[in-house]
């Protein structure tokens, strides 16, 4: 009952970059964004971290982006970043096979090295698997306390982050030593868009001659991913999610068929994943992926607080459930009390084919 009461009174909140209205303890400095890249461009979650870095109120602060890896893709990403985003003042490139894969040990040593040479006041990264893997180790090496899953920036040392599975927002004031390490919830900061501004940032190579060769005991083995033409769940404009009420992996194909017609990504609750209906990379929620699509459709999803934590920032939420008292209806913009096994086939019949 307490959780339901909280959900009634806590409304969805759009966090922006408010004007600076107070004093802060940091010196004028610069900000480092640890970015992930693929295919010669910076990934959207890292662009959201970059957007968050521009929200810092210090007008004299500059923003540097750290890119690491090896091969032509790395240098293509560096060139693209330098020419496409005017808010970037410098692109740092670490070219080595050690950073070909996002292992925490070498990346953390790299950020530690760059911080000692650059003296940054803030270090940003996305709160995705990349940032969550690397930044806690960076914070340990620098002997500072990180602030994770930030959804809002009030000033240079005051930040907003969710607690209690997203049912409340906590304001945190950082009083530790520099740098202030932050991981950013990408759904709260729209990814920075490319600009036609001709001001190009400088590109510098990181001197790796002093990097410790003892980079830890973990070894990269392999990476597997499903060959899927559907949009990526974390960045999709439309997400169709199924819950335990689908009852089987065979029935879950109804969700996949609807997603195919809508050009949407497929999501699932933890209960559906635990039951083996779909793989766990489709899980949405506190222990899965955080999404904020323009349209979120939930079929047979009860609305446990752990699931709501992963999708409550969606622009429009549509819920279909045969239980009129399901908590999902408390956050839904549109709700239909009905049998999903009747609703989905009707939608499939009436929706036009995807062009």
From TrEMBL:
InterPro entries on file: DHS-like_NAD/FAD-binding_dom, ETF_a/b_N, ETF_a/FixB, ETF_alpha_N, ETF_asu_C, ETF_asu_C_CS, Rossmann-like_a/b/a_fold
Name the record gives this protein: Electron transfer flavoprotein subunit alpha
Cofactor-binding details, from the entry: Binds 1 FAD per dimer.
Keywords in alphabetical order: Electron transport, FAD, Flavoprotein, Mitochondrion, Transit peptide, Transport
Cellular component GO terms, alphabetical: mitochondrial matrix
Keyword match Electron transport: yes
PANTHER family, alphabetized: ELECTRON TRANSFER FLAVOPROTEIN ALPHA, ELECTRON TRANSFER FLAVOPROTEIN SUBUNIT ALPHA, MITOCHONDRIAL
SUPFAM superfamilies tied to this protein: Adenine nucleotide alpha hydrolases-like, DHS-like NAD/FAD-binding domain
Binding sites annotated in the UniProt record for FAD: 244, 269-270, 283-287, 300-307, 321
GO terms of molecular function: electron transfer activity; flavin adenine dinucleotide binding
Cellular location(s): Mitochondrion matrix
Swiss-Prot/TrEMBL cofactor(s): FAD
GO biological process: fatty acid beta-oxidation using acyl-CoA dehydrogenase
Annotated Gene3D superfamilies: HUPs, TPP-binding domain
Function: The electron transfer flavoprotein serves as a specific electron acceptor for several dehydrogenases, including five acyl-CoA dehydrogenases, glutaryl-CoA and sarcosine dehydrogenase. It transfers the electrons to the main mitochondrial respiratory chain via ETF-ubiquinone oxidoreductase (ETF dehydrogenase).
Key word Transit peptide present: yes
CDD domains according to UniProt: ETF_alpha
Quaternary structure, from the entry: Heterodimer of an alpha and a beta subunit.
Domain Electron transfer flavoprotein alpha/beta-subunit N-terminal: start-end pairs: 31-215
Family assignment from sequence similarity: Belongs to the ETF alpha-subunit/FixB family.
UniProt source species: Vigna angularis var. angularis
């Amino acid at each position: 009952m307490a959780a339901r009461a909280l959900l009634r009174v806590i409304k969805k909140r759009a966090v922006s970059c408010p004007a600076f209205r107070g004093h802060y303890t940091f010196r004028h400095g610069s900000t480092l964004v640890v970015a992930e890249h693929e295919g010669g461009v910076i990934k959207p979650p890292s662009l959201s971290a970059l957007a968050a870095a521009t929200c810092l109120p210090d007008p004299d602060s500059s923003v540097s982006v750290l890119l690491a890896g090896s091969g032509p893709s790395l240098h293509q990403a560096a060139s693209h970043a330098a020419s496409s985003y005017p808010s970037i003042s410098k692109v740092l490139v670490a070219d080595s096979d050690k950073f070909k894969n996002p292992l925490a040990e070498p990346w953390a040593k790299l950020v530690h090295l760059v911080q000692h040479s650059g003296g940054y006041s803030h270090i940003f990264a996305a709160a995705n698997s990349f940032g969550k893997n690397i930044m806690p180790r960076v914070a340990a090496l620098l002997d500072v306390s990180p602030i994770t899953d930030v959804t809002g920036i009030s000033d240079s040392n005051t930040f907003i982050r969710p607690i209690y599975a997203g049912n409340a927002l906590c304001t945190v004031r950082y009083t530790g030593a520099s740098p202030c390490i932050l991981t950013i919830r990408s759904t709260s900061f729209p990814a920075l868009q490319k600009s036609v501004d001709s001001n190009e940032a400088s590109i510098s190579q990181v001197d790796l001659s002093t990097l410790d060769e003892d980079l830890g005991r973990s070894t990269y083995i392999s990476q597997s991913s499903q060959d899927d033409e559907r949009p990526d769940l974390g960045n999709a404009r439309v997400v169709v999610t199924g819950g335990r009420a689908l009852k089987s992996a065979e029935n879950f194909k109804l969700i996949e068929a609807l997603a195919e017609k809508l050009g949407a990504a497929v999501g699932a609750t933890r209960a559906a994943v635990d039951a083996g209906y779909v793989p766990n990379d489709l899980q949405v929620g506190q222990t899965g992926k955080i999404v904020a699509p323009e349209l979120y459709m939930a079929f047979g999803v009860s609305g446990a607080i752990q699931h709501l934590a992963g999708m409550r920032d969606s622009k429009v939420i549509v819920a279909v459930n045969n239980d009129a008292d399901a908590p999902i209806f408390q956050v839904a913009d549109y709700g239909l009390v009905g049998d999903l096994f009747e609703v989905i086939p009707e939608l499939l019949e009436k929706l036009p084919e995807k062009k």
